[in-house]
């Protein structure tokens, strides 16, 4: 099978780019993510493929470092731009064009920060999507996607499935099966990352419930997905890794709940993965100070 991907390197780059959404440089993780996305919505699945391809193609044409392209570093923000637009809006021709352009622009912005050695994670996706959502809402009449108004039917398993729903919502998927598939996809690449992510999703749901957030949205995983990403960043086998995971997750949850409660980013579509980026960057700063002090 590895020979197959060697013959189709562009496909390999795309799959790794999709896998990098949850920081996994693994083509099989990316493939399972893609399966889970298509199960939720074919429009989102096609959008992810197109935007990731656009980002990867742009990186290749601009002759960015081949090792970075191989690792999928120019695909994950592009992938999220695509799935976000397909999830939020009816997929008109304008949206398909923006999915391609947004994917390409995400790669360019990602490259800028990679060159500066600034870890911004999904920040290019956030900025591009905020701008596009604001413009589309204020200057076009493109209707929202039917997925936004889809009724979520509660079940007796909601409490149990909340933890995996946190994985699903990272890529805008609310289906139970998608969440489970995403968890398995991370687990086959890094069991420790998947388990830390699972614990973070549970903690995010629990603390948000204690904070009085809507139980329906908690069960959907909307208060857990940012925590999942923060946990994955710091996951590792050392005892100190667990401490950094806890700090990052608590900071991420605090930022998430604060922004949502105050409706700070409603005008641009919501918080997306900003709490993850903020919580993780603050934790990295604290970690850097701690290491310097210890030295």
Can you describe what's shown?
The protein is mostly helical and about 300 residues long. The chain has helices spanning about 1-5, 10-20, 25-40, 40-60, 65-70, 75-90, 95-115, 125-140, 160-170, 175-190, 190-210, 215-220, 225-235, 240-260, 275-295. α9 (about 160-170) packs across α10 (about 175-190). The radius of gyration is 18 Å and the shape is globular. About 55% of the residues are buried. The mean pLDDT is about 95. Belongs to the urea transporter family. It is a multi-pass membrane protein.
State the fourth-level CATH superfamily of the largest domain.
Ammonium transporter AmtB like domains
Shape summary: globular
Query: CATH class of the largest domain, anyone?
Result: Mainly Alpha
- Main beta sheet, described? none
Helix/strand structural class: mainly alpha
Total strands: the figure is 0
User: What low-confidence regions span 5 or more consecutive residues with pLDDT below 50?
Assistant: none
Mean pLDDT across the residues is 94
CATH topology of the largest domain: Ammonium transporter fold
Binned, the helix content reads over 70%
Kindly provide the radius of gyration, computed on alpha-carbon positions and rounded to a whole number of angstroms: 18 Å
